[in-house]
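Question:
Now give any protein.
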Amino acid sequence: MLPFGMLLTAIALAPLCFADWWGRHYAKVSFALAAVVVLYYCLGLGASTKVLQTAEEYISFIALIGSLFVVSGGIHINVKGEATPLANTLFLLTGAVLANLLGTTGASMLLIRPWLRMNKYRVTAHHVVFFIFIVSNVGGCLTPIGDPPLFLGYLNGIPFWWVAKSCWPIWLTGVGVLLAMFFVVDARNFKRAPTLVREKETAVETWHFDGLANLFFLAVILAAVFVNHPPFVRELLMISAAAGSYFTTKKPVHEANHFNFHPVKEVAILFIGIFGTMMPALDWLAANAGKLGSAKPAFFYFGSGSLSSVLDNAPTYLSFLSALFGVAGTKDIHALLTQHPAAIVAVSAGSVFFGANTYIGNGPNFMVKAIADHQKVHTPTFVGYVMKFTLPFMVPMLLLVWLIFFRS
């Protein structure tokens, strides 16, 4: 597990301590650490099947992330005026709802650019981070489309609407608390803004949409999510939709969105390292999760959540679902839904909510940061994100959800 720990440390501290060096060499670090683990699994353990399975998961991950990035980059939403705290809060609420229809990745890539534009006169780090909290993570807790862990649950037999019926009070609490926190922070920021800025941001609101033909390609990607056989047809459909979008979108639309492939390139490279080096951690978890606790919801909420903050939340979800099967003594998902529904809800909420705790907790997080950085918007470092935003805002919300829903 040492290469995984080294990679997480590098992602957290290298941009802060030696940013120029990291910017030039992060790909080499990611590839080298992944290679150490991959070679160990193939040559030392003879576990090439595990490596191929992880490679397949990575291809599926980057095909979804990349295709949504390209297609959303072909839709330009021009918003002027009304960037008041109330309008911003309603925008984030809309994003939280859309996350369940388009996925957290689709909603994030579609809305992050207009979000930055409508706040351009006073955009600060809290605009980026709360967008990640709400749209890129917590908002997608109601449907299997919303976040990859829930989709894996659906593929394993959990009914499509069971999540919405079981998780909506938790979703409402989590989103509601974060929106209230954001409103208070944004109102203070708005009051500190110069009078001229406030006048510009409260001018008559106008919305203009370009590239709406890309909604067809977006629908193709979302439909492809449910294609399981034969192998890689789903990914080919996604890539084809992305190619169709890219080559049919008019150049002025891409220019208006400042579209380029740098954000998705950075995510693809870093997550090669993450997927490659996290295999030992996930294997250990699969072997030992059932020994770590009982079927108490709090254990599964904090267990799946804590690891989802630094591991990919989809395999973490599956590992804890497997642990729950072991604790319950059954492989029947319907029996599990009857006997331990609160534990399944805890795994679902923990995997989705805690993914907001770090930049690497969920795929869209890093992409939102990369887009904001490209547009010269100040974003906190990895450590600054955790210290300035996760601890004072996310952690109280997560504890409140535990207190209300999972303590007993």
In short: The radius of gyration is 21 Å. The first strand starts at residue 76 and ends at 80.
